[in-house]
Every structure is written in structure tokens, then in C-alpha cells.
Design goal:
Radius of gyration: 17 Å
Order of helices and strands: EEEEEEEEEEEHEEEHEEE
CATH topology: Immunoglobulin-like
Strand content: 35-45%
Largest sheet: 15 strands, mixed
Number of strands: 17
Number of helices: 2
CATH class: Mainly Beta
Structural class: mainly beta
CATH architecture: Sandwich
Length: about 240
């Protein structure tokens, strides 16, 4: 793997900051969104939606925590028009009712796109150069299924939701990623108190009857989640 730095200019617009608090007790990805230790976590919201989408604007909250072995992210979604067709790792889950966490632990390396549909199926790449290319991006690779085994995902919806569920429904996703997964692809990463990563949180449903594209940090034009120059700071408490 090349270790050459792919420098990304700082965002030209002001961006929010999300703080990952350190958990003071054992972390579970199940249970209530506000149960301990998640009541210690700062709450973020995906409240920006691109005009290209439908008039459906789901309410999406997220929280993050960290400990000595990795980071934890949870999404809480009040949604409608829910669909989950894809069931295999690396399927195009963005076409389903989907939440996404893009994260870049080091400024001189690439980023990871954790895309998870409401049924818990994930797509995950390590992208070093997001410039469009004949194979999707100029420089990228899939995170292998063997490496992805260290990731934990919890979901409250069935693995498949077909046909589309039109009634208002709450669903949640919990994600754990060990630091070792990141380090396999980019070498040592900072994760002590005061460390700053960059990233963004998204909600999408490209292939549902009411498509929408929501984001925490503004992505600008054209609509594209793969803009690491737009990632916002993620600070470790």
C-alpha cells in the first residue's frame, strides 16, 4: 500500500464539531438510545437535506462514544417509506433506507465509508482518492470480509423489509469499529483524549419511493457524500 500523503484542503465553509465522549462504563449497542452509558454521549442531528430529494425528511439523531479499544456510533431514525432489500456485505445498501458514517482518522491518509441499511447490511471501502474514475474512484479498495469481522452492528429492523413499509416507524443502528481495523489500512492512528479526526454522518434512501439525502455537515454542490474536504472535526473528549 502506498503511504504517500493525499492532502485535502480545509473546508471553505464553517463546519460543526462533534465530540466523542469517553465511556465511563461498558458500552452496549442495544437498549434505549438514551440509556447508560449513551446518556453520557453528545447528541448530533442530521438536519440538512438536499433539495434534489423528495419532501420526506426523517428525524435522525446520532451519538458517539469511545474507549480503549475502539469507537461506537448509534443512529436513531424516525422514518417512513422504509425499505431493506440488500442482504450481502458490499451490496449497494445506499439504495435502501440507510445511515452512513464517513470517517478519516488521519489527515495524511484516506477515509472509510460505513454505509449500513436498516437491516444491518454494510458496504465499506477504504478510499484514498475520491476523484471519479472508471472503477468508481481514482484510488480505493474494499475492506475485506475477513477484516470486517471485527466490526459489530446491531439493528432493530428485520434484515429484509420488502415491500416498502410506509407507516411511521422508528429504527436504530449501532456500530462498533476497533482501532485495529483502521490501523490495518492506514497505520497508527490518534485516539487519545484531544485527538481530532474528521468525518460526516448521513441518511439516504436512493431507491425508495421517497428518496432523500441528509447530512450533518454541509456537502455543498453537486450532491456527493464523497467529499473529504467537507468533513467536519470529530474530537475525542
Amino acid at each position: 500500500m502506498s503511504t504517500g500523503a493525499h492532502r485535502i484542503p480545509a473546508p471553505a465553509v464553517s463546519s460543526p464539531v462533534y465530540v466523542f465522549n469517553r465511556a465511563q462504563s461498558k458500552i452496549s449497542l442495544k437498549g434505549g438510545f438514551d440509556d447508560p452509558p449513551w446518556n453520557q454521549a453528545a447528541e448530533g442531528r442530521i438536519s440538512n437535506f438536499h433539495s434534489r430529494g423528495s419532501d420526506h425528511r426523517p428525524e435522525v439523531r446520532f451519538k458517539g462514544l469511545y474507549d480503549d479499544i475502539g469507537i461506537y456510533v448509534r443512529f436513531d431514525v424516525n422514518d417512513r417509506y422504509i425499505l431493506s432489500k440488500y442482504t450481502q456485505y458490499q451490496d449497494s445498501v445506499c439504495r435502501d433506507s440507510c445511515v452512513e458514517f464517513f470517517v478519516r482518522p488521519r489527515e495524511d491518509r484516506g477515509y472509510f465509508n460505513f454505509e449500513i441499511n436498516c437491516g444491518g447490511t454494510m458496504l465499506l471501502y477504504y478510499i484514498e482518492d475520491a476523484t471519479p474514475g472508471p472503477n468508481g474512484f481514482a484510488k480505493w479498495r474494499q475492506v475485506t470480509s475477513e477484516d470486517a469481522r471485527s466490526i459489530r452492528i446491531e439493528h432493530t429492523m428485520p434484515k429484509q423489509v420488502v415491500p416498502e413499509l410506509a407507516v411511521p416507524t422508528n429504527w436504530q443502528i449501532g456500530l462498533f469499529v476497533p482501532y485495529s481495523l483502521f490501523e490495518t489500512y492506514m497505520g497508527p492512528i490518534p485516539h487519545a483524549p484531544g485527538a481530532v479526526w474528521r468525518g460526516n454522518f448521513y441518511k439516504c434512501a436512493d431507491g425508495c419511493s421517497h428518496p432523500h439525502w441528509g447530512y450533518w455537515a454541509e456537502v455543498g454542490e453537486p450532491l456527493n457524500f464523497h467529499k473529504p474536504e467537507r468533513f467536519a472535526p470529530l474530537r475525542f473528549e
